[in-house]
Amino acid sequence: MCYHMKLGLISLGATSGKWIAEKARQYFDEVEDINLKEINIKSTHQGKEVFYKNKPLQHYDCIYQRGSFRYELVRRAIADILHKKCYTPLHPDAYSLCHNKFLTALALQNENVPIPETHFAATTETAREVIKDIKYPIILKVPQGTQGKGVLFADSYPSAKTLLDALDAFNQKYLIQEFVDTDGCDLRAIVVGNKVIAAMRRVAKKGEMRANIHQGGHGEPVILDERTKQIAIKAAKAVKAEVCGVDILEGTRPVVLEVNSSPGIKGITEATGIDVADKIAKYLYDRTIEVTKRRENKGFDGIMKDLEQQNEFVSALSVKLGIIKLPEIVTKLTGFKDEDEVLIKGEKGKIEIVKSNFNKKGGR
């Protein structure tokens, strides 16, 4: 069967997004660049819808979103509305998990992905208590931010206290994290599906602890060992992202520092010589075809199976001669059998049926 595949690439128009869109045109039949800033979300009691330039967003077979943490809520809302209508490589949860460093840490820990020791303090007062009993040096971070911004180093309690005093006026929440000494280097792995397609070692500029290329660092090609590759892939799965960047500190053991839902690809492409944009574009196309075929082949049996896995659904009632007839799926869901004793509670607009704990002789 021949498919006509359409990709909607939602971004802020940065270089990485343009590169991916350009490569995607070699695979998809149609590719549209969609400006994230011109999107709005409409939500009413009747439903929710994505609008672009004040018109309903047209249908796409794949929606791939890129953008900064400042657009987390709208990106999540877009994914929440569209992820069941087309293929989206990032689950709606991924945007919140990736754009909040503490939520990232929790998601990684839940899946046993190694991370640095991390404390979250909701107030400056709580942070002051945390820094009294922690091992130095430490890193102070704000939960949201990218490209190395909002990251501060403290080598002692007096240093940390001074930083907190200075930040108090901003009424921030804080992440307090163990410092992993890597000589100003970290690893950036681009995960696509179940593979690390490219990796580089980022080296900080002299006098700078942050290795981010946006902070003046530079990238060097690196081949990750299998253990580190699996950690990166596991981290991507933990935040529910099929395409992402994973930042890893080597130290005495590899630990995941952050996961980026919209990784820049210019630096890693130049450092490694790998056409990262092409690999992402091809993956999006192949997965879109796969998801489209699966949905077409699902048919009635697949729909019924999905219903059986849910505990609620919408159905039209059949009422004849005062008798309510429920759909067959209700029997499968509840496991009720002929002559089961049930307790029935009813009020206007509501029925509750619960299997009785009494046996037929009236005992428990």
Q: TL;DR of this structure?
A:
The protein is of the alpha+beta class. The protein has helices at residues 15-24, 72-82, 92-99, 101-110, 124-130, 157-167, 226-238, 266-272, 276-309, 328-334; strands at 6-11, 30-35, 39-44, 47-52, 55-56, 62-65, 118-121, 138-141, 151-154, 174-178, 185-192, 195-203, 218-221, 243-249, 255-260, 318-320, 323-325, 342-347, 350-355.
Keywords:
364 residues; alpha+beta; Rossmann fold; Dna Ligase, domain 1; 4 domains; 5-stranded antiparallel β-sheet; 19 strands
Notes on the structure:
With 364 residues, the protein is an alpha+beta fold. The chain has four domains: 6-97, Rossmann fold (3-Layer(aba) Sandwich); 117-178, ATP-grasp fold, A domain (Dna Ligase, domain 1), CATH 3.30.1490; 182-279, 2-Layer Sandwich (D-amino Acid Aminotransferase, Chain A, domain 1); 318-355, no CATH class. Helix content is 32%, strand content 27%. The strands form six sheets. Strands 13-12-11-14-15 form a five-stranded antiparallel β-sheet, sandwiched between helices. The chain has a four-stranded antiparallel β-sheet with strand order 7-10-8-9, with helices on both faces. It has a three-stranded parallel β-sheet with strand order 2-1-6, sandwiched between helices. It is globular and about 85 Å long. Mean pLDDT is 87; it is low at 359-364.
According to CATH, the homologous superfamily of the largest domain is: ATP-grasp fold, B domain
C-alpha termini separation: 60 Å
Look at the structure and give the CATH class of the largest domain.
Alpha Beta
By DSSP (H or I, 4+ residues per run), the number of helices equals 10
CATH fold descriptor of the largest domain: D-amino Acid Aminotransferase, Chain A, domain 1
Give a quick account of the main beta sheet: strands, pairing sense, barrel closure.
5 strands, antiparallel
> Reading side by side through the largest sheet, how are the strands ordered?
13-12-11-14-15
Low-confidence stretches: 359-364
Radius of gyration: 26 Å
Q: Please trace the helix and strand order, writing H or E for each element.
A: EHEEEEEHHHEHEEHEEEEHEEHHEEHEE
Overall pLDDT metric: 87
